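Ticket #4471: structure output looks truncated?

Reporter: J.K.
Steps to reproduce: submitted the chain below (262 residues) through the standard prediction queue, then opened the result file.
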Amino acid sequence: MNNRYYRFFREDGKALILAFDHGIGGDIWINPATVIKAAAAGGMDGILSTYGVLKNFKKEIGKMGTMLRMEVYGSRLITYDPLLERPMGSPYTIEDCLQLGVDGVMTMGIIGNEHDTANLNYIAGIVAACNKYGIISGAEMLPNAFSSKLEDRSTKVMNIACRVAAEIGVDFVKTVYVKPLEEFRKIVANCYVPVLALGGAPLNEDRIILENAHQALEAGCKGLVIGRNVWGHKNIEGMAAALNKIVHEDATVDEALRILGN
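Returned output as attached by the reporter:
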């Protein structure tokens, strides 16, 4: 377990992971090799991706830690919401993960809706299976999925999301960083496993991306699992390096921006 843990988390206890599972529904126009090479060159510690990417781009991934997205939601042609209208489930077993050679797995953790209990039991089953084989388990805890309602991102609700994942036994939690910083710091402090902030929707302003990352770290997060704001950036390697400087070198936003020439 420890060996796989340190494929993602460095000696400083922090991790910078590329989220590159956005092609799961098929609606994506980008070469994985280009993204992975640039992210690795920028110093990212690991990659969260799909079975197909992890299977076919091992050379490009190199020494990065590998994490499989366990769910298959359906193609982007579906007309329902697979996160809210269906319970979470996976076609992959932990034995499949071992054959693929991954270091960890990531599940969705959608709570607060009618499938809450089923979803938590699904995560618990994966955690137990991972523990048998020393695979790292993470859960992306999102009350009512990607809800924009304030009540779904309150301190109370976000605390429940993070704490319940720790109680189930995941090795780390991925979730959305919610302002104000002081309130989120309480949530992170109450979660006794590492919390990693997700990258969120694509932004067009480098300073905002880096400020959000810096604030998440200030709030106690142990790193980032960030996708579109890296692989969708015009300078993938540069943005990865700038985030790496914030996560692992405690750099200021201005110091990180200089890497991007801003």
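Triage note (M.O.): checked the attachment and the full token line is present. Strands lie at 15-20, 46-49, 65-69, 104-111, 136-143, 172-175, 195-198, 223-226.
Status: closed, working as intended.
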